[in-house]
Structure formats: C-alpha cells, structure tokens
Predict the 3D structure of the following.
Amino acid sequence: MSNNKTGFSKEELARYSRHIIIPEFNIEGQRKLKEAKVLCIGSGGLGSPLLLYLAAAGVGTLGIVDFDVVDDSNLQRQVLFTVDDVGKSKAETAKKRLLALNPHITINVYDTKLTSENALEIFKDYDVIADGTDNFPTRYLVNDACVLLGKPNIYASIFRFEGQVSVFNYKDESGEFGPNYRDLFPEPPPAELVPNCAEGGVIGVLPGIMGSLQANEVIKVVTKVGEPLSGKLFLFDAATFQTRTLKVYKNKTNPLTGENPTQTGLIDYVQFCTVQLPGAKKASELREVKEISVQDLEQWNNLGHEYQLIDVRESYEYDIVNLDGELIPLGKVAEKENVAKIVTDKKVVIHCRTGKRSADAIRELENLFGFDNLYNLKGGVVAWAKEIDQSLPTY
Amino acid sequence: MAKIIIPTPLRKFTNSQSSFESQSETVRAVVQDLVDSNPSLGPQILDDKGNIRSFIRIFVGEEDINVLDGAQTAVTAGSVISIVPAIAGGSF
C-alpha cells in the first residue's frame, strides 16, 4: 500500500528529486511543470536545448512546431539530432528523442509551417510559447499571436556570437501585461541588414547557452519561482563574454497594445517584414533577375553551349568547393578591373552558395553597368552539389 | 570618454570594429562621431533627417534613451552606449 498522495508516480518522484528538494520549488513547482503546456516554435539551435531541458524537467505537455528536416549542417549545434536522423522530420525525431529522455510527458508534433492562418489555433491550447525561430516574419507572428491570446512569449535569438533573451507579454501578479516584442522593435530591419549566407552563421555552443536560458525562463514563468526576465532584455556576446541586461518599456505607438491600437488580428508578416532603406530598390525590382536551374546549366554543358561562369563567394569558400568559375567576391564585383573581366558577347552565369549573393551581384552589375546577359544559378553551388554532382562537398 | 558598443550585424560597416570611444557629450554626437569615422554606417542607423532609425534601439547603461532625453541624452566618461538591433536567428 502506498502513502504517496502527491499525484506523482514513484518513478517520477525519483526522477524529479533534485527539483523537489529545493525549498522554494518543491513538489508544488514540479506539479506546475507537470500541468503545464509549453509550445516551442522551432526545434533547431535554440529548440534543441530548450526542448531537452523542458522534457527533462518534467513539463507535462510539450508542443513542437517545425516543418523542417534534419540536415548535416544542423548537427554542429542542434544537439537533439544525430547522424542517423539526417533527412528525417525534425519534429518527429525530436519527439522520439524527448520521450526516450522522459516517458512521463506528452509531446504534440506540428509538422507544419507556422502561418497567420494556423497560429492562433495551435497556440490556444498552450500556457506558454517559446520562440526559437530563425526569421523576422515568424518572430512578429509569434509575438502578435501571443499578445492576441494573452500568453507569455519566451524569446531568444542568436547571431554569430551574439544572443538575446527576454520574456514578452508576461502577465504579472496584478494582472498587467509586460512589454512585448513590438515595444522593443516596432519594425523589422530593412532587407539590407538581414544577413545573407556569407554574413550569417552562429557559433555552435551559443544556441546551447541562449536556449538553456530560455528554458530557465519558461520554468520560472510556469512555476512562478524567481523573477522572470519581463521588461528586460538580456544580451550576451560569447566572443567577449560581455553581458548586459537592458530595460524594455511599453511603447505608446505599439499597434497592438499602445494607446491607439490599430491591429486586432494577425497580418501578412512576410509583407510586413519586406522593408528596405529609403532609396533602395523596391522589392518587386529585386525579384527580377534572370535565373537558370542547375539542370539547365548541366544541359548547356552537355550541348557544348559557351558561357562564362562567375563565382561571387569569398576565397575561403571557393577553396571548400567550386565549379571552376572565375572568383570575384560580391564586395569587389563592381570594381573596374573586375567588371572588365565579365564578358558581354555571351551568356554569363553567376553563382554563390545558395543564390542570394549572386542575385545581388547581378542587380548591382545591371544597375551600374547595364549588363543584360547575366543569369543567376538557382540554388547556387549547394544545389549543384545536391542535384548534379553528389561527389562535391557542401557547407 | 563614452564608449559605444557596435552589434554584430553592423560591424560590416565598421571594419569589424566592435566598440568606439568618443569625447562627445550627447548620444547623438557620439553616434555622429561613429558615423563620421565609418561613413557607410550612416544610412544604416540614421534617416535623411539625421534621426536614429526606429529599428535600432539605443541604450545608455541599462536605460533606453527613449525614456531619457532621446538622442540628446547626456553621456559622460564611463557611459556605455549600446546599439541594439533586432536579430532573428534561432534555428538557422
């Protein structure tokens, strides 16, 4: 006969012992975790440590929104996954891994892209939302859905060596909501400041650090133990070990929660985030670059078509893998001696790693020098290596 | 001297420099010194009228300058000015 009236099994009590013996946490904190429903947007760099720690800690119901599949390049930081998982659904793979870690919890998988159409429906059953996405449209979507539904948004974001954490839209004991993402960043940065593939990247351990801080904030919000990072933004620079905690205030002009709210529902976030610096080309103009697929380029090769191939990546990238093109890094493409290398009497195919920098190069060359014979290799050297010549490495 | 910390996404306009020091006495003047030293940074953080763009947040110490005196917020020797841009990465 058992005297255990805690609602936890013997196995669970043993498992959560180190929580239970913290005086201010104790079995009540553990019960709140067990009763909590936490939705994690993204199971990648931030989502990996976040989900692992929340599952290990005993959050009763975890939701995972991720439509991506595991790629080799994820394994440098996405510690949920192994080599055997490459090519498989991240959300489903994460579920299996997390249930192996803690069989006492429930995992709900949403193997779908989060959109303005499905966000409210997915969010409504959860108590806390944790945002570990990788793009501005989804950041604003997650924020707005949380505000509209009155749910806390545990936020973390990373770039190279730099990370940010905050707790947005947190309802305090007096029932008042704290600042949200739009109070801090009323509008997204222009396209020119959103890094392309040459400027991105992240040190692998950084999402481990920031995702763990995010998990800590989720646990604090759920259990009401400690002081959540509401009204504050924590910044961490892994390169210099510089940390800062800045104050975040409500913004009177916030379209959702300001003095004169103008937004009552979700919007088109891709359009909202397509902003550019004044004087920059319009988005519609940016899209008009002639393209060629890797299959068509292979066909040109097979048929003996003459063309010039230009690679606008950096030399260290060229050394990893190249298609034997002429190397002119994007930053130097408009220099006189380099422009002179580009032929005008036949077609010119320009490529980079995945196609963004080469599109930028083509626009620059067309705008400044009037070229009309430039074609962007769709998907870049990565597409070529995946679809045409699998012997080539990718990065 | 006040020190201004330059965030990673803007370092491509500052020759990878991560901080900058200035003798000036307001946030706006320090930012101008930074822009004068790195002209390509100008259009990124200032609009045509010389105002700080709204997607950039600037803090002195832990305080948002918007709750202080905005761009005219005074800084002294030892002040740390943070430029904080939105970053979106998480799973990439």
